[in-house]
Amino acid sequence: MTKQFWTIGLILWLGCIIGSLALIPYILHMLPVPPEAKILPMLLQNSILYAIASFAGLYFAQKSNFHIWPNKQSILISIGAGIGVGIILLAIELILKSLNLSIVVGTPPAWQYGLLAAIYGAINEEVLLRLFLMSFIIWFLQKLTRSAGNWIYWISIIIVALLFGIGHIPAVKAITKITPAIIAQILILNSIAGVIFGYLYWKYNLVSAMLAHGAADIILHVLGVLLLF
After folding, report:
1. Can you give the pLDDT at residue 123?
2. Residue 200: per-residue pLDDT
3. Hey, which bits of 105-220 come out as E strands?
4. pLDDT tens for residues 213-223?
5. Which pLDDT score is estimated for 169?
6. Half-sphere exposure of 215 (CA within 13 A, CB side)
7. 32: how many CB neighbours lie within 10 A of its CB?
8. Contact by Cβ (8 Å): 46, 19
9. How far from chain centre, in Å, is Cα 176?
10. pTM of the prediction?
C-alpha cells in the first residue's frame, strides 16, 4: 500500500465521519430512536464501518481500475445528471402525491435538515455502496469469471441500486405503515437514482457519483421542500 492510498483512504473516512455528524439533526428530528444517549455509540459504530468501507473499498476500486478524483468535464456532467435525477424523482413524487400514493407523511423536515442529510447521502452512501460494495462485486465477478466484460459492471450497478432502495425501507417503516405498493415505490425510485450514480462511478469517478447524489438530494429535500411545502 502506498502513501497515496492511505492518504486518500483517510480523506474518505474523515468525509464519512463528517457525513455521520451531519445526519444527527435529521435523525433526531425524524425519529425518536436513537435518542441522544445513543448518538455516541452510533458514531463509534459508523466510524468503524466507514473506516472499513473507505480503505477496503479503495483497495477493490484500484483492483478494478476505478478512479476517485474528478476532472472539469465530469464535474459538470455529474451535477447536471444529479439535477436531472432530482427533478425526475420530484415530478414522480408529485404525481404519486396527487393520487394519494406518496410515502411522504405530512410535512417533510425543513430544508436545513434535508441539506444535512444530503451531505450524508453524497459522501457516506457513495463510499459504502459504490466505492466498497460495487467495487467488491466487480472485483469478485472478474476473479470468478475471468472476464472484464461490461455485463459485470451492469450486474454490479443493478445489484447495488436495488440494495440502495432496500436500505431506505427501515427509515420509511419507522414513520409510516409499509405496504407492497410503498415497497415497490421505494425500490423503483431509489433504484433509478442508484443506477445513474453507479454508471457515473463506472464511467467517470467516485466524486462524480457523490456530486450527482448530492445534487439529486438537494433538489428533492431542499428545493422541493422550499417550493412545495
Report:
1. 98
2. 98
3. none
4. 999 999 999 99
5. 86
6. 22
7. 8
8. no
9. 22
10. 0.93
